[in-house]
Amino acid sequence: MQTHPKTQINNAQSFSIAPQLYAAHRPNYPKALFAYLSSLCAEQNMAWDCATGNGQAALACAEHFAHVEATDISAEQIEHTFAHPRIHYTVSPAEHTPFANACFELITVAQAVHWFNLPAFFRECERVLQPKGILAVFGYADFEVSPEIDCILRQTFSLSIDPYWADGNRLLMSGYAGLQLPFQALQPPQPFCIEQSWTLTQLAAYLQTWSAVKIYSQKHGDDPVVKLVEQIRPLWGEAEQVRAVKMPLHLLLSRKEE
């Protein structure tokens, strides 16, 4: 069995490095996901997007809810959020917030729950979620372009940066295997997938947002993404040629009891 050396990293600091890259290059979540999540709620008054980053999931929630509270522990991330009249951003940890009891119909956590103190976060969800409210946890770890490009990504690039993933990343990579939410589990009716149309330049910019890439570059003094681009360019074609990129979502859902 392969083992991985533990990476010691302050995750809040990692996401505070070049936060403008997250705002510019992180993919958007499928609109169908948020339409489905809102349909699970009896009313669409208040939602909380926890660990909002640059606010992508909060923006999607705002299409369905009258008001969205969006929090993140990183002040640098909050400084690069997308403004919206129905979204209020706050710098706050996931485990202790300023919100009133039982005020939200929906809580979303996108690409972040694996960094939380889960018992404390679940207690906060119990406090601020309304009866019959929904807690939705989702994230993506892998992506697909073509069999030939995917092979290089997994056998060369992924192996080179693998020692620099933290334990939280590995939980996400497993599809949140073994993670149980605190309320009644719900089964989504279908799998959801992010679908992007990216150039090679855009794909490289997205990879630059990965924490393991940042740590690798700091430790080795070179950029593994540059090496990857050199390897896959002959398979991709022109750097500005657009290709379909698919990212399957891992989704966990639960409903609070009445």
Order of helices and strands: HHHEHEHEEHEHHEEHHHEE
| Helical run tally | 11
Taken from the alpha-carbon principal axes, the silhouette is elongated
Overall residue-averaged pLDDT value? 89
Rg? 18 Å
CA(first)-CA(last) distance = 44 Å
CATH architecture: 3-Layer(aba) Sandwich
How many runs of DSSP E, i.e. beta strands?
A: 9
Q: What percentage of amino acids are in beta strands?
A: 15-25%
Sheet with the most strands, sense and barrel status: 7 strands, mixed
Q: Which CATH class? A: Alpha Beta
Helix vs. strand class? alpha/beta
The tally of structural domains comes to: 1
Strands in their spatial order, largest beta sheet: 3-2-1-4-5-9-6
Give start-end ranges of low-pLDDT stretches. Answer: 1-19
CATH superfamily: Vaccinia Virus protein VP39
User: How much helical structure, as a percent, in the residues?
Assistant: 25-40%
Oligomeric grouping of the chains: single chain
CATH topology: Rossmann fold
